[in-house]
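Cross-check.
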Amino acid sequence: MSAPGGSTPARRTRLLDHKLLFVTGKGGVGKTSMAAGLALLSAQRGRRTLVCEIDAKGDLADSFEVSGLRFGPTELAPNLWGMAMDTEESLREYLKLQLKVPLLGRIGPVARTFDFVADAAPGVKEILTVGKLCYEVRERTYDLIVVDASATGHVVGQLAAPQAINELVKVGRIRDQTRWMVDILADPATTAAVIVTSPEEMPVSETLELADRLAAETDVYLAAVLVNRVLPELFGRREEEVFDRLRQPAGVRALTQALATTVAGAANGASSSSGETRVGSGAGRSRTADPTTPEAVGALLDAAQLAVTLRRTRAEHLTRLRTELSADVPLVYVPYLFSRSHGVRATRAVAESLAAEIDE
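Predicted model, tokenized:
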């Protein structure tokens, strides 16, 4: 999708070349939909892909129309698996794999002790979350892991936790365990963050703030900003002049007459070709259902004017985003999908939109 407003086109980016993508953004901008779309696109291109929901609210499951996700991987489509993060299950797996502790049936007491320690030492739960994902990267279980990460207010703390623990603990097993996590997170060829936003004031402000915080407080590379719900350009400059004239009373009358003539001609042609006699507009025809009335035409023009106004307003926020965001960060424009926001069909539509902007 070209850049709105006739500005410089958005640079294409090779997001799917990474091994670990953290997709974040302000609540309500379509973060989960974008994560699901990226994961599906990766799978469609032949990569073994895992998509992981951090907050486990169930939105990711809705994107693929499955009953729910658990800690263990669930197959969602060819080459695509999904999971929901669970820190207790992650602890269980860590104890089994790293410390060789067979506590499969007695994790409760350990988990309660862990909760106590985690509350006293912030960053421990984040380590289990990020550590699980980094472990899968290190084991090369998947070609790509797409993370439906926490929203803007929490993701920085999660991504910075391994480095914070590594700096705090100078020797021992904990430092050894966090060192390789830090190496994975800090490698821009392996790990990247993706911010999802929308062309509105608050999401753009939070996006710019988050981009600065990622650079200042973490070693994670910001690969792209996905701008969701970008409205299409309806009219060029010359078309806008015609549109403005059509919205005048004389224009509405002329357009109504032209539309009525076209509809009547099409109906008569269809009747002739099928050998049927159709009833034209008359007393028995509902005026409210007739698209050729001045009221219906006026409503259509009003809707078009609203769309133009919304797009112009949003274009201002996009201009701010392009101006204040680092020139090194690509912007990927995802068009507004005039359909339900969840479900397999919506996820496929998002993947198709992203495919046009993301290089192989």
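The chain has a mean pLDDT of 83. The beta strands are 20-25, 49-53, 74-77, 80-84, 144-148, 191-197, 221-230, 331-335. Passed to J.P. for a second look.
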